[in-house]
């Protein structure tokens, strides 16, 4: 395994964790120390009473002999898991940092998560949103009290940096940050606590913060469990990265073809990549039709509203079982439910 | 207050409970002893690991200064709260009784609840369903391993009795039974444990088993809380009963006008009526349009699929606040999510 191009420190070797087969997880130097279960347990304390401790929902409707449980993160106050990481990050800032104001770049669930968490701390949040985003996403963010700055899509990452430099704002990144990873990892801790005999945990992959945190917790709490990422075929950069053994990037033109608007990030983050190559057993892809079909199953059989990204893991369980490890107990993380009502209606009547 | 027509015993006076204003709850003889919190706590032990212990979901999208929490019972394995009562009832039977086989009359959620719970005990269940029920409801019941007997609607209550007499089956009634009431009451115990400072609990009313159990628990655990039932205007028999001070009945032709197919029972049961008149502060009604609008809000803002019956309480909170007691913290019990996908799609695009 080749070290990353700018490695600066050696990772701690997670002593209680089985390395993923074929990968010498602790033998190379790394960009950053990996997040630990202790970081995640501390995050659990911080987010208690803010994020919902979601139950594991049995899915007796799923075919086969195994048991499927859905982790319904669309039930969070902003409709997605992102509140866990954003709140943990903002809680870890000093009062002085929060008083300077926060900035984030997102047109999706991270925008609402930062706006929601900032409001709880009485902090001002500025969200940079591409001017191509649909008006209801802007409205959802402003309704939570955040300022919105609309920018051309090409400037969505440079404008926040400029606001940090010029206005003194503190950046809340969407995934490439240990506090964000630890916050999302609380899902993994809950899974480990609720079903310690879990065999397989399925997690959607975009920037990689979610699967990084979950895999960190699960691999310590349930050393025999496998953690497998799920991506759309049309945005399969992380699956490609894992196969190649190095972090690859797709183009926005490629990843924006998928209906799963939460999974269009063109590459996993630097810190997530370190966690993924250490802890994640595999990443598989599902088709657009499979995602739509799983959305319908989750509504009709599971009574859960998912956005396309949130249905990807259930799609993998239902339609790509032959590419998954054998498992008696599987958890599918359903990451969010912020879906255009017209799309949902189309999915309901269209299949 | 007039005693019921066939009173046979005196109720225990629930000493820790404040009587509902204007009603001398403990001064009259009753048909049956009321279910107690101890019965409900025992039911909690029985259903643990079978029914999901549903979280209270904050609803920051609800307008006004108060806090609304939704109790999402559509997340139960069969998509509705009914699993709580049915499982508790069947668990309380002797092995010999369960071996005789179970019978229930229902075309809805009770059918699936009995089928699901019976299967867990390895008991045979026979469900009597009106031959006018849609095929997917029959299919949902048979897929859980139950035998289905289709009968003309007029015979839906007499055929189960005949099966009890001729075949030795044990009847699992939908609401008029203390074990069923205690099982549904576990929702109230969970509410009392999770938000002891609750001011108002909104519960849909059909046969009355759900509100009976919930009110019993809430009035002990949170003596200052109000419990208010919600019915469709087109099936407002319980609201009328509470106003009249006696159990009244509507006709099936009347109650079948409502879209809320889970709330069409023509009269509350005998045992539920005793609990309602003792513990329930008020019952209000909502319109068909309000129910549909609340279904849409619950999908879009709450990411929850409700059947019309399950949206009635949220409709009351959103659109009939002027008829509810003042409250800082309100819980709306969303009872179920077994809805025709075409209806749900219509609700999504139609408003």
Automatic annotation (TrEMBL), chains A, B:
<dbReference type="InterPro" id="IPR001926">
    <property type="entry name" value="TrpB-like_PALP"/>
</dbReference>
<dbReference type="GO" id="GO:0003941">
    <property type="term" value="F:L-serine ammonia-lyase activity"/>
</dbReference>
<dbReference type="GO" id="GO:0009097">
    <property type="term" value="P:isoleucine biosynthetic process"/>
</dbReference>
<keyword id="KW-0663">Pyridoxal phosphate</keyword>
<dbReference type="InterPro" id="IPR050147">
    <property type="entry name" value="Ser/Thr_Dehydratase"/>
</dbReference>
<dbReference type="GO" id="GO:0004794">
    <property type="term" value="F:threonine deaminase activity"/>
</dbReference>
<dbReference type="GO" id="GO:0006565">
    <property type="term" value="P:L-serine catabolic process"/>
</dbReference>
<dbReference type="Pfam" id="PF00291">
    <property type="entry name" value="PALP"/>
</dbReference>
<comment type="similarity">
    <text>Belongs to the serine/threonine dehydratase family.</text>
</comment>
<protein>
    <recommendedName>
        <fullName>threonine ammonia-lyase</fullName>
        <ecNumber>4.3.1.19</ecNumber>
    </recommendedName>
</protein>
<feature type="domain" description="Tryptophan synthase beta chain-like PALP">
    <location>
        <begin position="52"/>
        <end position="336"/>
    </location>
</feature>
<comment type="function">
    <text>Catalyzes the anaerobic formation of alpha-ketobutyrate and ammonia from threonine in a two-step reaction. The first step involved a dehydration of threonine and a production of enamine intermediates (aminocrotonate), which tautomerizes to its imine form (iminobutyrate). Both intermediates are unstable and short-lived. The second step is the nonenzymatic hydrolysis of the enamine/imine intermediates to form 2-ketobutyrate and free ammonia. In the low water environment of the cell, the second step is accelerated by RidA.</text>
</comment>
<keyword id="KW-0456">Lyase</keyword>
<dbReference type="InterPro" id="IPR036052">
    <property type="entry name" value="TrpB-like_PALP_sf"/>
</dbReference>
<dbReference type="GO" id="GO:0006567">
    <property type="term" value="P:L-threonine catabolic process"/>
</dbReference>
């Amino acid at each position: 395994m080749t070290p990353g191009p700018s490695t600066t420190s050696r990772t701690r070797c997670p002593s209680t964790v089985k390395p993923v087969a074929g990968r010498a997880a602790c033998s190379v130097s790394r960009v950053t120390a990996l997040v630990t279960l202790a970081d995640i347990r501390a995050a659990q304390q911080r987010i208690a009473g803010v994020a919902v401790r979601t139950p594991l929902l049995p899915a007796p409707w799923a075919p086969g002999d195994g048991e499927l449980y859905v982790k319904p993160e669309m039930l969070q106050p902003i409709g997605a898991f992102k509140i866990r990481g954003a709140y943990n990050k903002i809680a870890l800032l000093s009062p002085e940092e929060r008083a300077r104001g926060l900035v984030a770049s997102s047109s999706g669930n991270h925008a609402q998560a930062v706006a929601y968490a900032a409001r709880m701390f009485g902090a001002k949040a500025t969200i940079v949103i591409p001017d191509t985003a649909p008006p209801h996403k802007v409205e959802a963010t402003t309704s939570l009290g955040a300022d919105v700055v609309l920018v051309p899509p090409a400037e969505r990452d440079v404008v926040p940096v400029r606001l940090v430099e010029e206005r003194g704002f503190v950046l809340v990144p969407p995934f490439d940050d240990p506090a964000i990873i630890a916050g999302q990892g609380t899902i993994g801790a809950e899974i480990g606590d609720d079903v310690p005999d879990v065999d397989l945990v399925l997690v959607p992959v975009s920037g990689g913060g979610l699967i990084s945190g979950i895999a960190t917790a699960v691999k310590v709490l349930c050393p025999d469990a496998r953690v497998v990422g799920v991506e759309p075929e049309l945005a399969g950069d992380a699956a490609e990265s894992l196969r190649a053994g190095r972090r690859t990037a797709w183009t926005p033109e490629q990843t924006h073809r998928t209906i799963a608007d939460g999974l269009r990030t063109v590459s996993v983050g630097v810190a997530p990549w370190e966690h993924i190559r250490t802890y994640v057993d595999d990443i598989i892809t599902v088709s657009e039709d499979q995602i739509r079909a799983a959305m319908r199953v989750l509504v009709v059989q599971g009574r859960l509203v998912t956005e396309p990204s949130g249905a990807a893991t259930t799609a993998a369980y239902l339609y790509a079982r032959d590419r998954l490890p054998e498992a008696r107990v599987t958890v599918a993380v359903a990451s969010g439910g912020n879906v255009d009502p017209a799309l949902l209606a189309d999915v309901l009547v269209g299949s």
